[in-house]
Amino acid sequence: MSSIRPFREILRRKTKEIKVGNVYVGGDAPISVQSMTNTLTTDPKATILQINQIAEAGADIVRVSCPDEESTKALKEIVKHANVPIVADIHFHYKRAIEAAEAGAGCLRINPGNIGSKDRVKEIVKAAKDFGCSIRIGVNGGSIEQDLLEKYKEPCPEALVESAERNIKILEDLDFLNFKISVKASDIFLAVNAYRQLSKKCDYPLHLGITEAGSYYAGTIKSSIGIGMLLSEGIGDTIRISLSSDPVNEVKAGLEILKSLNLKNRGVKIISCPSCARQAFEVIKTVEILEQRLSHIKEALTLSIIGCVVNGPGEASQTDIGLTGGGKGSNMIYLSGLADHKVPSEKIIDHIVGLVEKKAEQLRNQAL
After folding, report:
1. pLDDT of 233 higher than 60
2. Can you give the pTM of this predicted structure?
């Protein structure tokens, strides 16, 4: 366990528990991180490669678009070689959902209201039951039903929630309760208020997201604000950061949000200063290199990199491994919060990488 202790632990909203493949969502299960492929699903080789890259980055679940029959035919091969459960993204054609369930998808992402008649939804539900699939009701601010837009005059939290309730009833009437819900929007306050309202009206697990959030930099900030607000209130069971970027970056951003809120521990959490004239070594460059060289570490541990002795000892006392800049190129290494030995500036990176890898190995052995 990391030596850092959370100032405040978040009390999560109690929800029903469902399964997406072998991953539990809701209940007491850890908050899962999701992403989505951007390869052509009809190219199984490229899609499998990307899925497993996303999984290696720390994703628990990956979504794959299934817009046509060729895609659902390829899905069977994709599921067979994927290292994580697959969610089949279905928008309109009910047969694609049935085919995806038959192909081994762990979950079907649908908006029941878009599928058409109740008989078609009934067929999807039967396939989900037959093949052990869960369902995600995906409500989106950009595709609210026309009658709700006419009623509320514009996309608003109440419209999103009413759409969700309408679709929940469809599945409940078919005696299907193995589902989670999202009420995404690209506007932070619209999405946050919709999720808040929905969380008071039902206890189904919620999939959080700020949809179409934007580029890696801007979208990560936008998502962190919106999703972070909800998670800090105990709302949310699984998350996806929607970025115009490599899906691996979505996973990294999602994990950082969860780590920042002490909701998930995976990999190295680096506490570092912004640097100033007092720094005894190049803090910014050091942190950039360490992030890259320590990205393979999966064990949860904390590392502080502070350029001088003003805040360095205090931060180091709360981390597994700490570095505080000292004079004349001699910097102090802290282990488990205590000053241990010195390291010259030119050897910092290799030395810390070695210490982190050794600590990670110890944590792995303790877990066996």
Report:
1. yes
2. 0.90
